[in-house]
Amino acid sequence: MKILKLSKDKLDFFASVLQRFGEVHAPVEDNGEFVFRRLARWSEARLDYQRTILPLKKYFLPPRETLLEYRPGTGYVPAERDLEARLVLFGVHACDIYALNILDRVFTGRYADPYYETRRRNIAIIGIDCRPDERCFCRSMRADFVDRGFDLFFHDLGDAYLTIVGTALGDDMVLATGPLFSPVTAADIEEYKRRSAGKRAAFRLEVEIRDLPEIFEMEYDSGIWDELGERCLSCGSCSVVCPTCYCFDVHDEVELAGNGGRRVRTWDSCLFSTHALVAGGENFRKSRASRIKFRYYHKQRGFVAEYGRPSCVGCGRCIAACPVGIDITQVIDTLRGVLHAGPQ
Amino acid sequence: MLAPSEAIGVQALRKENPYLPAMARIVRIHRMVENNYLFTVRFLDDELARNFHYLPGQFVMLSVPGTGEAPISISSTPSRPGVLELCVRRVGRLTNALFRSRTNDLVGIRGPYGNGFPLDRMAGNDLLIAAGGLGMAPLRSLLWYALDHRDRFGRITLMCGARTPQDMLFREELVSLLDTRELECLLTVDADPGGAWPHHLGVLPALFDHAEIDPARTYAAVCGPPVVYRYVLERLLALGFSKDRILMSLERRMKCGIGKCGHCSVGYKYTCLHGPIFTYWDAINLPEMI
User: Fold this and answer.
1) Is B260 on the interface with A (CB under 8 A)?
2) Contact state of B251 with A302 under an 8 Å Cβ cutoff
3) Which pairs with CB-CB distance under 8 Å and at least 24 residues apart come from B45-48?
4) Of A171-180, B220-229, B254-263, where does mean pLDDT reach its minimum?
5) Which chain A residues are closer than 8 Å to B20 by Cβ?
6) Closest chain A C-alpha to B23 CA, distance in angstroms
7) Does the distance separating the beta carbons of B252 and A278 come in below 8 Å?
8) Using only C-alpha atoms, what is the Rg of chain B?
């Protein structure tokens, strides 16, 4: 593994060179919140940000995307707009990179999604470490650190970044800047370890995920779900902001002139009442309680069975976004507590 | 990220795009019963038409240009290649549009998707095919597959139920099977308003009283509305069927057919990838399954 160091006073120059590798996007402040967007100038970038409103899936699975175009006579052809755009996402937190690695398991491999895959190949990722706030529980979800899924990863050492080179593209970025990067010293490594331990100690939110799938099974008929169903508004905010929620809807749009149309996919949510509705009117998840239960069940139990880990990365966005204050960590704690309470 | 140093283009979208349907021509529209038509389609690409391999129990995603796409089970058998037969009930926007189409109109097809019936496991065993209502649509593929490969299976028993004779899908075809010794064919209707139905009268599960079934060497394939599952499963379990010898075909909302869109998930399984054929054992271990 190639590990280097970049002095912070050279970061501006490094960023200017990055433009050769694509349009540079980074977190910027917008009305007191943070969003990933194209930088007008480097000074806009806020590398000290807390979580962005939307996760990075917006780049790889856009909220609305034309998959196919239809022309009478020729049939369906793939829509190819914007797919070849090369971007560099600068300043991505570990949990968000982890989330992309989870999406990879769904969208690559068998029946690979070529739209997602193409963007994944054309968008470079430079990670940066972070400090947890009161909503971060990525450590409980084993997503506070990533060992892959980035081209470069910057760990703050105070006056410099310890830089892990993850891919050949990351190496090209390093080489393109000439002698900007220097080798790490034993003192740098000690400093990295000191800060790593400090980050670990800074977590204020914790959940236990061991045997959680089994507890979900045991508590499948728990009254907790009905209580949550009473509070949940089915607004879908939690799935919009979730870095690993990927459900989508597909519909056709017709040109008004009647000579063709397009097939479009849009973000969907399992909280919406139509999510499990089939033609003819049968709905497999009519009640809000069944839908919110399904969301938790799919992420915390189903994904474990299918992919060996929950699809939650503990980014805390759903806690921040829920208009009625449903907090996933409290839901998990309550489920565990229900089991422990029992008759006195 | 996946192959970082090479900018890959959009060739992949044209070469291997699982969302891209192939165009097919509607070559026959047969009105089977009110609001249930059998559409026979053939791919425009001759090679694809000849080499479209599928298993009984699999489904395709059917596109009606300008309207959308929906999962439709394949009613024809892979032992008779060349065309696909799709039995469709008019229930929504897409099927309404399909019912307005005419012979020679084009539709899009992609697939086949889903697991299909586990033919390797079923080979050498007796078959019990129990269909209620629209349940015959996916099971007809298995029925004809078994009849076309008669030596691969032991005894074959077909139980088919409908509300009235007029509601029975593939009625003429099934009635014609009453005379063959290739299988035991039991047909029943809940009611016979016309009074001219010479076969069984009563609900589907009652046909078990007329069949000889050895649960130890039989695979049961069941499809129908919830009430069919409930009472047929009851009979099968009473006979002593092992739960993994009971195979069920399920339907869910599907937008992709390839395990991405999330709509067809039940518990941790995707109906489109892990199903639509599930054993009863799978079903009782997955919430919301039936």
Assistant:
1) yes
2) no
3) B48/B22
4) B254-263
5) 68, 76-78
6) 6
7) yes
8) 20
Token pair recorded at residue A305: 């069975």
Residue B110: closest CA among chain A residues belongs to which residue? A76
Phi and psi at A278, nearest 5°, equal -110, 160
User: Residue A56: pLDDT above 50?
Assistant: yes
| Torsion sign across C-alpha atoms B225, B272, A71, A116 | positive
For domain B119-249, the CATH architecture is: 3-Layer(aba) Sandwich (3.40)
Residue with the larger pLDDT of the pair A257 and B207:
B207
DSSP-based three-state secondary structure for A205: coil
* Residues of B with Cβ-Cβ distance to A107 under 8 angstroms: 260
- Cβ neighbour number for residue A338 with a 10 Å cutoff: 15
Domain ranges of chain A: 2-54+82-201, 212-246+271-341
Counting every residue, how long is chain B?
290
Tell me the CB-side half-sphere exposure of residue B10, using CA atoms within 13 A. 13
B11-112 CATH pick, 3.40.50.150, 2.40.30.10, 3.30.310.50, 1.10.3720.10: 2.40.30.10
- The encoded tokens of residue A104 equal 């990879």
| Run of H or E residues at B94 | helix B93-100
Work out the number of other CB atoms within 10 angstroms of the CB of residue B68: 18
In contact, A96 and A55? CB cutoff 8 Å:
yes
The mean predicted confidence, pLDDT, of chain A is 91
A287 contact residues in B (CB cutoff 8 A) = none
Amino acid at A33: E
B255 inside 8 A of chain A by CB: yes
- Evaluate whether B287 touches B267 at the Cβ level (below 8 Å): yes
Give the nearest partner residue to B66 out of A254, A275, A306, using CB atoms: A254
Predicted local distance difference test score (pLDDT) of residue B44: 95
| Tokens of residue B79, six digits | 């032992």
Q: Do B91 and A83 touch (CB under 8 A)?
A: no
| B282/B286 Cα distance (integer angstroms) | 6
DSSP secondary structure string for all residues of B189-251: ES--TTS---SEES-GGGGGGG----GGGEEEEEESSHHHHHHHHHHHHHHT--GGGEEEE--
Helix axes A168-176, A11-18, angle to 10 degrees: 120
Contacts of B268 in chain A (CB under 8 A): 297-298, 301-306
Q: Does B11 touch chain A (CB under 8 A)?
A: no
- pLDDT > 50? residue A272: yes
ipTM topping 0.95: no
Decide: residue A74, CB within 10 A, 0-12 exposed, 13-18 middle, 19+ buried. Answer: exposed
Query: A324 φ, ψ to 5°?
Result: -115, 15
Burial of A47 (0-12, 13-18, 19+ CB in 10 A): middle
Q: How far is B177 from chain A (nearest CA, A)?
A: 31
Q: What is the pLDDT of residue B251?
A: 75
- List pLDDT tens digits, range B6-48: 445 566 677 789 999 999 999 999 999 889 999 999 999 999 9
Inform me whether the C-beta atom of residue B282 falls under 8 Å from chain A C-beta atoms.
no
Q: Residues with Cβ < 8 Å from A114, sequence gap 6 or more?
A: A78, B12, B13, B16, B17, B18
Query: Least CA distance to A84: which residue of chain B?
Result: B9
CA distance B257 to chain A (A): 10
The shortest CB-CB distance from A250 to any of B255, B266, B268 is to B255
